[in-house]
Specification:
The chain is of the alpha+beta class. The protein folds into two domains: 9-336, tricorn interacting facor f3 domain (Immunoglobulin-like, Sandwich), CATH 2.60.40; 343-463, Neutral Protease, domain 2, CATH 1.10.390.10. The protein is built from eleven helices and 22 strands. It has helices spanning 12-19, 22-31, 262-269, 272-283, 319-327, 344-360, 366-374, 399-416, 418-431, 439-450, 455-463; strands spanning 58-70, 75-86, 93-96, 101-107, 110-111, 113-117, 120-124, 134-143, 147-149, 155-160, 165-168, 187-197, 201-203, 207-214, 217-229, 236-238, 241-246, 252-257, 290-295, 312-313, 335-336, 435-436. The strands form six sheets. An eight-stranded mixed beta sheet has the order 5-4-8-2-1-12-15-14, with no helix packed on it. Strands 17-18-19-20 form a four-stranded mixed beta sheet, covered by helices on one side. Strand 1 (58-70) and strand 2 (75-86) form a beta hairpin. The two termini are 20 Å apart. Bound molecules: tryptophan and zinc ion (ZN).
């Protein structure tokens, strides 16, 4: 309940030291925010933890992804059509894309020149783009995709399994399977057309528009209309048992379950409608029309992901994991980060949802969960760094982000009282619905709603090093 959603005890401390290269420090200043020199789009949006994530100079409004995957050869063919809009004049811009071979690239149907530089795909369109111009990028590609290794040693992206692929992009892996403006600052709608052998299922985000089988292959068409960050996109493939139904509230539920996980998953998945109803009471209307679960059998992944509209699990989830991933639909998916440093806005809130669920369903109160954590000695990993300032991309999924992040909300609740606290949660989800929120904005909203000065509270719980001396 208080653990990060990661299971293997990765060597987090060693990873920090070993995998933050000196070069990254240099890039920090080099990439900078999207204040591009002249008419060249910046190679990153200026995220200090992931300097090359996302790109400057344009926004993507829509991704149309047409994919074909053959699980036995692990070969992927792809065509990505991006509808974008320039936010500055552009003689050149970048996409994030790594690994796969590119066979064609056009901008507004004209062949564009490109070169690859690590994860940056540097595109020079035949004609410069005007500021404000809408344009279309088409990239065709293929190859054998694989995951990226994150600063903390975890894998994300296209992760092949024994019967397909577990496709999870947080924080960086979207670029392993489609060219993207790969930062949560840019949210877009998506269409997916995915073709797999007819004994497999391909599950993406949003509503299933249709499926058809021909020549031994099935094509699935999915649509996510609501804005989505690239890391929340999935195209998970496997031999799945599928169940579809509509909830009382009219949500279209699509469950895809690996048969090896089916017995353990069934009693938990059955609770999804009641969990979403409960979360809607606390956080406001569910942000999407589609819902569900993808339960894969991916024993070496070690985490679940809040893929938009339909979380993805590496194994049968327990109930608190289901509550956690679905709470992210409000906190993380609908209200998105502008910077990975603010990750506690995702993980602290989703963890606190678990505590509240327990409290309101006959389990421990949130206060009791808080107390048990607070009792941990100052030397415990829980106090290793403050959740509002994890320090690097290697720490974004660390215990303090989840547990001390949730503890911050409990301290806030105690300071403002239940009535104001629950109004703050509702107001936060409502005000930033389908958009973005920062920690500073959350602090201001909490102060406005409660009429209290909360500087000291947030300073202590979000930003101060070490174990706070007062609960
Ligand atoms: N956001 C996921 C969750 O809490 C966890 C997660 C995603 C993760 N990607 C990861 C954990 C990579 C460790 C490493 O539900
Ligand atoms: Zn989470």
């Amino acid at each position: 309940m208080t653990h990060p959603r990661r299971r293997p005890a990765l060597l987090r401390r060693e990873a920090v030291v070993a995998t933050v290269p000196v070069a990254v420090a240099a890039l920090l200043t080099a990439a900078g925010p999207a204040t591009a020199a002249g008419s060249v789009g910046a190679p990153g949006v200026g995220d200090p933890y992931f300097p090359l994530a996302g790109n400057g100079g344009y926004h993507v409004s829509h991704y149309g992804l047409t994919l074909g995957y053959d699980p036995s050869s692990r070969h992927l063919t792809g065509k990505a059509v991006l509808a974008a809009r320039a936010t500055q004049r552009l003689t050149r811009f970048d996409l994030d894309f790594t690994g796969l071979k590119i066979t064609g690239l056009t901008v507004d149907h004209r062949k564009a020149s490109y070169k690859r530089d690590g994860q940056e795909l540097v595109v020079t369109p035949a004609r410069p783009l005007r500021k404000g111009q809408s344009f279309r990028i088409t990239v065709t590609y293929n190859g054998k995709p694989g995951p990226v290794t994150d600063p903390d040693g975890s894998l994300d992206g296209w992760i092949p399994t024994d019967d397909g692929a577990f496709v999870a992009g947080e924080p960086q892996g979207a670029m392993t399977w489609f060219p993207a403006n790969n930062h949560p600052l840019d949210k877009s709608s998506y269409d997916f057309t995915i073709t797999v052998p007819k004994d497999r299922t391909a599950v993406a985000n949003g509503l299933l528009l249709g499926q058809s089988t021909r020549n031994g292959k099935t094509t699935f068409r999915w649509r996510q209309k609501a804005p989505m960050a690239a890391y929340l996109a999935t195209a998970t493939v496997g031999r799945f048992k599928v169940k579809q139904y509509t909830t009382r509230d009219g949500l279209k539920v699509y469950d895809a379950v690996d048969p090896r996980e089916a017995t353990a998953a069934a009693p938990v998945l059955k609770k999804l409608p009641s969990v979403l109803e409960w979360e809607s009471k606390l956080f406001g209307p569910y942000p999407y029309r589609a819902a569900g679960s993808i339960v894969d059998h991916a024993p070496n992944v070690g985490y679940a992901l809040e893929t938009q509209s339909r979380p993805l699990y590496d194994r049968a989830p327990d109930l608190s994991t289901l509550v956690h991933e679905n709470a992210h639909q409000w906190f993380g998916d609908s209200v998105s980060l502008t910077s990975w440093k603010d990750i506690w806005l995702n993980e602290g809130f989703a963890t606190y949802a678990e505590w509240l669920y327990s409290e309101q369903h006959g389990g421990d109160s949130a206060q009791k969960t808080f107390d048990a954590l607070y009792a941990r000695p100052a030397s415990d990993a829980l106090w290793e760094f403050p959740p509002g300032n994890p320090g690097s991309g290697a720490n974004i999924f660390g215990t303090p982000v989840y547990a001390r992040g949730a503890m911050t909300l409990q301290v806030l609740r105690n300071a403002v009282g239940d009535k104001d606290f629950f109004r703050i949660l509702l107001a936060w989800a409502k005000k930033h619905r389908h958009g973005h929120g920062t920690t500073a904005q959350f602090e201001r909203l909490a102060e406005r709603e409660s009429g209290k000065n909360l500087d000291q509270l947030f300073m202590t719980w979000l930003y101060a090093q070490g174990k706070p001396s007062h609960p």
